[in-house]
Design goal:
329 residues, mainly alpha, two-stranded antiparallel sheet, 14 helices, oxidoreductase, FA_desaturase_dom, Acyl-CoA desaturase, lipid metabolism, membrane
């Protein structure tokens, strides 16, 4: 059955498969050399620091930039800050901004039901999926299936945003810069001999590890963790994922309040991306921050019937539409 915003077959699907194969495959080859260097004890402090530095920069670009800013408009930002977020997110090898945003909005529109592009519970046609098959589809399989997201539906209007349009037109430049910056980092700190290691760790390995981390929110983030809210889907809060995604692992909270700038809502739910927004708001760089009133959060927590216990991908076929009120806050 046809689903609005989902393209089946055709050039769009072929283009998606080819781009994803290159975006995943090329960094994986480089990552193999990085791992061999690590196993052989040849990795240097420059290599490891390059990995941490660029993982943090690009990881925040994905979570804070592609996700909270461009996809959900959780806050407004000064054009310079918005451009930094666009650059960092575009260096993740996860598709241009318009494609990333459209895919993510499609996920929210069809969470864990017919039309969801990366669910461990159902495939894009609503057929039940579970176990390894469901996990694989949510984690990586969706990038090579027979569907593509219709940009005219879920990316409508994005081309009118000059910052989005610029980074979409120049997308391949940012992919090259994603590898060139680690090379420059290695050269500055260690000379020509440090360039290769910095590229392998700060470039290729960082790209591949961040891929797995972001995809884990799609898969494990709907399979393993806790639920603060009964959203009618299987989204969970996973503390490990929250740590390594700078706060985007509080996925159940996010599905409750998609536009909230902060995903960590309860004490102890550390949200680095939310902290960054708070900090830049005080500096005047960020404004119009979407905040959920504490009394509303407290009410929804009381009314939720799902206790904060470990859950699995079950019962997500009885999903209701996400109403305008929830989308707004």
């Amino acid at each position: 059955m046809a689903v609005s915003g989902v393209i089946v077959g055709g050039r769009e699907v072929l283009a998606k498969r080819v781009e994803n194969a290159l975006s995943v495959g090329v960094p994986l080859i480089g990552s193999g050399f990085a791992i061999a260097r690590l196993v052989q004890g040849e990795a240097t402090w420059i290599d490891l620091s390059a990995f941490v530095l660029f993982y943090s920069f690009v990881g925040i670009g994905v979570g804070l930039g592609l996700h909270r800013f461009f996809s959900h408009k959780s806050f407004a930002a000064h054009p310079i800050f918005a451009s930094i977020l666009g650059a960092a997110g575009s260096m993740a090898f996860q598709g241009n901004i318009i494609r990333w945003v459209a895919d993510h909005r499609r996920h929210h529109a069809h969470t864990d039901r017919d039309g969801d592009l990366h669910s461990p519970v159902v495939d894009p046609w609503g057929a039940h999926a579970e176990g390894v098959r469901g996990w694989w589809h949510a984690h990586m399989g969706w990038m090579f299936d027979r569907t593509a997201t219709d940009i005219s539906v879920y990316g409508r209007g994005l081309e009118n945003d000059p910052i989005v349009a610029f980074f979409t037109r120049t997308y391949f430049f940012w992919l090259a810069l994603s590898l060139a910056l680690p090379a420059l980092y290695g050269y500055v700190l260690g000379g020509p001999d440090a360039v290769l290691g910095a590229v392998l760790f700060g470039g290729f390995l960082r790209i591949s590890v961040l891929h797995q981390v972001i995809w884990s929110v799609n898969s494990f983030g709907h399979m393993v963790g806790e639920q603060n809210f009964n959203n009618g889907d299987d989204s969970t809060n996973n503390r490990l994922l929250a740590l390594i995604t700078f706060g985007d692992g509080w996925h159940n909270n996010h599905h409750r309040y998609p536009r909230s700038y902060r995903h960590g809502l309860k004490p102890g739910e550390i949200d680095v991306n939310g902290f960054i927004v708070d900090s830049f708001e005080r500096l005047g760089v960020v404004k119009d921050v979407v905040r959920i009133p504490p009394e509303r959060i407290a009410r929804d927590l009381r009314e939720s019937s799902v206790p904060p216990l470990a859950v699995g991908p079950a019962g997500a076929l009885a999903i209701h539409e996400m109403g305008d009120e929830r989308l707004a806050g």
